[in-house]
Amino acid sequence: MLKAITGTKDILPTEIQRWKYLEKVVEEIFTGFNYKEIRTPVFEETALFARSIGEETDIVGKEMYTFIDKGKTSLTLKPEMTASVVRAFIEHSLGKYQSLNKFFYISPMFRQERPQAGRQRQFHQFGGEALGSTSPLLDAEIIIIVYKILSGLGLKDLTVKLNSLGVPGSRENYKNLLREFLNDSKDKLSGDSRKRLDQNILRIFDSKVESDQEILKSAPFLIDYIDEESRTDFEVVKNLLKQSNIPFEIDPKLVRGLDYYTKTTFEIVSGKVGSQSALCGGGRYDLLVEQLGGEPTPGVGFAAGMERILFACENEQSLNLPEENIDLYIIKLDKNLSSKVFDLALYFRKGDLVVDYDYLDRSVKAQMREANKFNARYVLFIGGDEFQSGKLNLKNMGTGEQKLIGLDNYSEIINLVRK
Ligand code: AMP
Q1: Closest C-alpha to ligand 1, atom 16
Q2: Of 96, 220, 307, 407, whose CB neighbour count within 10 A is largest?
Q3: Distance from residue 29's CA to the centre of ligand 1 (Å)
């Protein structure tokens, strides 16, 4: 039997209501902050991701879906969105028309990771990017937006983790310090961490190996070595979050997996989704636009994992969505009334009612069962003696009340059902 590819999932009709609700909340909150939606292609030239995310990162090093197309170009299914947004921003000179651009997106992403709870190979992210200012107001705004979305979904068990990575200059000095410190315990580090010692030393903080974490306990932290400007901006971000009643904690180990971050980085984790607890992550990337060939333009943004968020909602029972229903189900008592039912359904649908009926010539009892399955608010019976005497019987399924309505008075049915 053919099956969906490992690490990918169908989103079935029974789950769509929750997805749409999440998308609606995302769109409403971003729109309230005047972020504009952007949609970019599913694949890009591989070089875009290699140059932005960083050759040494897990994403570029081992997780990308890369293929050579018939024109012999190396293409990659997008593993994240910031690089694509920045590429579009540069390509369409968006910075020329407007000095500050605020974007949001909702999109599938692709990473060849080991599938497990909270980790898929095709997953979905929503996110925001603000390009054009170094103001820490935007760092705070971005965090507030995603916090509002998550708390708007009723999630309670949330922790905002905050750190600052400073600018590359101060980071280089710090990396040397850290390397010196770790060299002393090099033999005790895990194989992966030893590799990172030379390639991407900051990522050692991401290690899940307990003995690595033990060693790191007494390591110097980047936050204590960042430059003056980053420190001042960090204070502003913290104060703005405090004044907006967003609880946060400083996590000096939060280095994030992508190379392009500068200054503020953050993650929001949920206590309700197991080991893959990060619901979103983001931060500032002041050098990325320039690095990809654009005019120097600072930026800040985040991406949030939609599967994980919906999983958290399920675990916290936080979404009380109304039961889905339809307005009207038409039941025919007489098989030869099919084309009449067909016509009537079209008429009522034109009146903006959600209408369905039986296509399988089933018994009245089976049609009634179907109406209940669809949670129909009203049922309209067509046929039998009443129909012969020019009437239709409309039943309110909530109250059980029935009403006879003249065959020439369909608009009354629309009015009654619409409420
Ligand atoms: P990142 O782009 O790696 O910063 O990830 C941002 C968010 O996307 C994470 O916090 C997760 O919620 C989500 N995410 C990342 N990778 C995956 C994945 N493989 N499967 C499901 N969600 C993911």
Answers
A1: 119
A2: 307
A3: 21
Give 281 Cα–ligand 1 centroid separation in angstroms.
Answer: 8
- pLDDT, residue 258, reads 63
Measured CA to CA in angstroms, residue 229 lies from 5, 68, 143, 254, 296 at distances of 47, 44, 20, 19, 18
**DSSP characters over 55-69:** TTSHIIIII--EEE-
Start-end ranges of CATH 3.40.50.800 in the chain?
Answer: 328-418
Q: What is the pLDDT of residue 54?
A: 84
Range list for CATH 3.30.930.10 in the chain: 13-167+226-316
Distance between start and end Cα atoms, the chain? 48
Q: From the CA of 276, how far away is ligand 1's center (Å)?
A: 9
For 62-76, what is each residue's pLDDT tens digit? Answer: 999 999 999 999 999
Nearest residue (CA) to ligand 1, atom 11: 305
Residues 44, 83 contacting (CB under 8 angstroms): yes
What is the position in ligand 1's atom list of the atom closest to the CA of 119?
A: 20
CATH code assigned to 328-418: 3.40.50.800
* CATH of segment(s) 13-167+226-316: 3.30.930.10
Ligand 1, atom 13, residue with closest C-alpha: 305
Separation of CA 304 and ligand 1 centre (Å): 7
386 lines ligand 1 (CB under 6 A): no
Under-50 pLDDT residues of the chain: none
pLDDT computed for residue 244 by the predictor = 96
For ligand 1, atom 4, the nearest C-alpha belongs to 281
pLDDT tens figures, 209-264: 899 999 998 999 999 999 999 999 999 999 999 999 999 999 998 887 666 789 99
